């Protein structure tokens, strides 16, 4: 499903506007002192003849950093930027209309690696029409 990749690109671009401590890369395991984002499935929820199909895609947003507050602050800022919008026209295209983004798992520390990197995880739900 090529359009899901397009949605992830749009969401990553919006997340980058928070100017996190690292560029956001694709994948489930962030690099050292990094942040990553990847879709975790997705499905059509409803079909509307005038708008297309309403999709729900869960997206994981994970980070690593030597300072746990730094990684938590970055993921929290990303969640706030993505979920507090009331209009998603700037992250929509001719093919995709994003209608909502919601936090499904708030940023939290999930562990620490032997190299002293704190790992934080979180997830959002992205709701959009594919026209």
Name of the level-1 CATH class: Alpha Beta
Order of helices and strands: HEEEEHEE
- Runs in which pLDDT lies below 50 for 5 or more consecutive residues are none
Q: Return the average pLDDT rounded to an integer.
A: 89
Percentage of residues in strands: 35-45%
Q: Per the principal axes of the C-alpha atoms, what is the gross shape? A: elongated
| Subunit arrangement of the protein | single chain
From the coordinates shown, what is the CATH architecture?
A: 2-Layer Sandwich
Count of strand segments:
6
Q: Which radius of gyration do the C-alpha atoms yield?
A: 15 Å
Largest sheet at a glance? Answer: 6 strands, mixed
Could you describe the 3D structure shown?
The structure is a single chain. By secondary structure, the chain is α+β, with helices and mostly antiparallel strands. The protein has a single domain (2-119), classed as 2-Layer Sandwich (STM4215-like), CATH 3.30.2000. 24% of the residues lie in helices and 44% in strands. Strands 1, 2, 3, 4, 5 and 6 form a six-stranded mixed β-sheet that branches. A hairpin with a 3-residue loop joins strand 3 and strand 4 (52-65). Helix 1 (2-16) packs across helix 2. It is elongated. The two termini are 13 Å apart.
